[in-house]
Recover the amino acids of this structure.
């Protein structure tokens, strides 16, 4: 099954995709967060890439308490679900940006973080 991983940010959104077997996540691209325009782009991306489920980073602190941006992520989840009619699953994004920063350049940081989020979800399956 084809999955899309998303690392949501107020300024940028990272995208990653899984291989056709749903085993390995690959960073894909970083989008400027332009609200509805970005949502429509992601919906078209899902259709083009034959995505069947979305994995969205959930922003919780070490005590599993939502960080301030989590309300924006929850709102984004509702919108992307309605636009794509795809299931959207949460996966913790704790330390993904820090780990991604060790292994990638700044221009692909958010895409690499989304790949880590997606890979963690795939590994659970």
């Amino acid at each position: 099954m084809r999955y899309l991983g998303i690392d949501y940010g107020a300024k940028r959104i990272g995208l990653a995709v899984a291989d056709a077997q749903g085993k390995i996540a690959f960073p894909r691209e970083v989008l400027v967060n332009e609200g509805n325009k970005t949502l429509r782009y992601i919906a078209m991306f899902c259709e083009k890439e034959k995505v069947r489920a979305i994995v969205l980073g959930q922003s919780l602190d070490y005590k599993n308490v939502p960080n301030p941006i989590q309300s924006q992520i929850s709102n984004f989840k509702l919108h992307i679900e309605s636009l794509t009619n795809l299931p959207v699953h949460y996966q913790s994004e704790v330390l993904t940006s820090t780990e991604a920063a060790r292994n990638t350049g700044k221009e692909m940081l958010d895409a690499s973080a989304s790949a880590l989020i997606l890979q963690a979800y795939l590994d659970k399956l």
